[in-house]
Amino acid sequence: MSFLIEQLINITDALFLGHVGEIELGASALAGIWFLAIYMLGLGFSVGLQVVIARRNGEQKYEETGKTFFQGLFFLLILASLLYLLSKIFSPIFLRYLIASTDVYNTVIQYLDWRIIGLLFSFPFLAIRSFLVGITQTKPLNLAAVTAVLVNILINWLLIFRYEMGVSGAAIGSSFAELCSLLILVSYMLRCVRKQMYGLSWHIDIRILKEVFSVSVWSMLQFFTSVAIWFLFFIAIEGLGEIELAVSNIVRSVSALFSVIVTALAAVTSSLVSNLMGAGERNAVFPLCQKIIRLGLYIGFPLIAVALLLHQFIIGAYTENPVVRQLAQQPYMVMLLNYFFALPGYVYLNAVTGIGATKTVFIFQVITTIAYLFCLWGLGNLNVNLATYWSVEYLYVIMLGIQSLIYLKLYNSRNNKI
């Protein structure tokens, strides 16, 4: 549910902007992914933070979990402020050289001017979420997610249609929704978490911060790289035309719902694996991964069946343009079937993260990225349809999964441990 916040905010923006125009719909995709790439630096750090907190929780060193949380919160607050300033200065310069269409570029900058403020709310939210997941108290994340989505829908409707603010209204609504979700978690932390038990007192400990950063730095690079190539994918699509870019944003928007399932189960994998390692139950890692994959299939299969049956209705919810609706059907089908490869791929990848081998995960990411970009470059020299571009996603998740599975099996067989 907590991962739904960013994705459902993007989905809501796309649903509303699709009825404003194709340029706004396509531009929101590029702007959203650019923002997401920056956001992933914070998310990557929070994954490492969560691993360390979960390890201390598994070791029953509860007071250390709170101390670790405050180091992560301090770092993420500083990082959010720095990235906000850097983005305001450099994003217009970089994007000017990457985006071919002037109309799309101007709309992207208009969106980012307001959307980037959300970093100041989303990064402290990530720190609190890492703490709550690490100590396995995840229920308040549901309320935070629901609140963010409802607020975003209401503000989007008011600002986009009532006050005709277009992409600026969508960006303001998204940032305000993140603020509301942060306030929900802050309220829970103040009222419900046992402060003395978990050592929740503000104290800067450079030693702990260095420990968290040594784990997190590779996750930060991995997460940033994963979205950066996603951005390059959309830059390649933008070169095909504004209609193709709008279509891809619709497909990306729908895929976000299934991505949330995969990402959430993968994040839980890293947390539970880290808890198992802290408790000394190394042999339970593979059975855990298999259970999580089965759970993901039970959840995803009926949803994919419904999405396939109702594809015309779902695509039509984004736009009335018959050209866009027709062109979206094939890449939509390709995207849905990728779920069955992405689920095991990311579960095993995050199992490697959970044991603390974040540098290894980053190496896997680099290898996969090179192959992915090479395929995109090859397709750019061929006259292929949009669905073929989307099929490259299969290569990406399959390579990540195979590398992670081989690493876990070889490491386990040589040392009788992970």
Shape: globular
**Total number of strands:** 0
Report the biggest beta sheet as strand number plus sense, adding barrel if it closes: none
- Subunit arrangement of the protein: single chain
Mean pLDDT: 89
Give a verbal description of the structure.
The mean pLDDT is 89. The longest helix is centred in the N-terminal third of the chain and has 37 residues, at 22-58. This protein has helices at residues 4-17, 22-58, 62-98, 102-115, 119-134, 139-162, 166-192, 206-238, 242-278, 285-309, 311-316, 322-327, 329-337, 339-354, 358-380, 386-415. The chain is an all-alpha fold and 418 residues long.
Architecture blueprint of SSEs:
Elements: H1 4-17, H2 22-58, H3 62-98, H4 102-115, H5 119-134, H6 139-162, H7 166-192, H8 206-238, H9 242-278, H10 285-309, H11 311-316, H12 322-327, H13 329-337, H14 339-354, H15 358-380, H16 386-415
Helix pairs in contact: 1-2, 1-6, 1-7, 1-9, 2-3, 2-4, 2-5, 2-8, 2-9, 3-4, 3-5, 3-8, 4-7, 5-7, 6-7, 8-15, 9-10, 9-13, 9-14, 10-14, 13-16, 14-16, 15-16
List key phrases describing it:
0% strand; single chain; mainly alpha; 418 residues; globular
Give a brief rundown of this model.
This protein is mostly helical. Helix content is 85%, strand content 0%. The longest helix has 37 residues, at 22-58.
